[in-house]
Amino acid sequence: MDWNLLSLSFIVVFLAELGDKSQLVAISLSGNCQHPRAIFLGAATALILASFLGVLLGDGIGHLLPVPMLKCLAAIGFAGMGLRLLWPAPEGDLGG
Amino acid sequence: MPHLPVLESSPEPQQPSQAPAPQEICSSPQEATLPPVRQGWLPEFMAAFLSVFVAELGDKTQLATLLMSAESQSPWVVFAGAATALITTSLLGVLVGRWLSRRLSPQALQTATGASLLLVAILLLWDVVHL
């Protein structure tokens, strides 16, 4: 086991992820949710799968998935959720 | 000494009336402190999974992991380090979210959540432009 490499990759990824989008998403979702463990498990699984794909496929991920289109769709979804929270509908409760 | 053995010999079963009915503990349908609607576990898991996965695809973390695993001869060590770091950061994120939700009023929490989700959307679009 190469402990130097292990700690190096831990520190690099940890610093890169602090305050990044995925952590913002985790903070936002867990503030309003009822199952914080579900948010933690979902976020951790997604992150591990994403980095697993990064290790496994390398650069080929761009050919496998339409990454810009997925990101655009996600941006629209996040913007919609954010706008609905900032300016909720005047009547009817918002689902949280 | 007639008083000593009193403590030892008192096996009289005098508290059958204290035993609670077991089905009343689990099902308290009119508990006012519970949230009115309890969503399932799975929708929140899937929401977190899908949004974080899409947000993280092609991100700088993935690029760093990719570069390190390509440079070194042992990609699985890099993967183990990255996975541990990612688990830690998402745990920190959830803890910060729960802490904020206790500290802020519901209205302030909603505003903060909306602003943070808008920020995530902007960051994602920035990624797309600079991909």
Automatic annotation (TrEMBL), chain A:
A GO CC annotation given for this chain: membrane
Pfam families listed in its UniProt record: GDT1
Coiled-coil parts of chain: none
Alphabetical UniProt keywords: Membrane, Transmembrane, Transmembrane helix
InterPro entries: GDT1-like
Listed GO MF terms: metal ion transmembrane transporter activity
Regions that span the bilayer: 38-57, 69-87
Domain of life, source organism: Bacteria
Claim: Metal-binding is one of the keywords in the record: no
Places the protein is found: Membrane
Membrane topology field: Multi-pass membrane protein
Family affiliation: Belongs to the GDT1 family.
This protein's name: GDT1 family protein
Source organism per UniProt: Petrachloros mirabilis ULC683
UniProtKB/TrEMBL annotation, chain B:
Entry GO terms, CC: membrane
UniProt-annotated location(s): Membrane
Alphabetically ordered keywords of this record: Membrane, Transmembrane, Transmembrane helix
Comp. bias intervals (Low complexity): 8-24
Keyword Ubl conjugation: no
Annotated transmembrane regions: 76-96, 108-126
Region annotation (Disordered) ranges: 1-31
Xref: Pfam families: GDT1 (PF01169)
InterPro entries: GDT1-like
Lipid metabolism in keyword set: no
One of the record's GO molecular function terms: metal ion transmembrane transporter activity
Membrane topology: Multi-pass membrane protein
Xref: PANTHER family: TRANSMEMBRANE PROTEIN 165, TRANSMEMBRANE PROTEIN HTP-1 RELATED
Family: Belongs to the GDT1 family.
Name the record gives this protein: GDT1 family protein
UniProt organism field: Petrachloros mirabilis ULC683
Record lineage: Bacteria, Bacillati, Cyanobacteriota, Cyanophyceae, Synechococcales
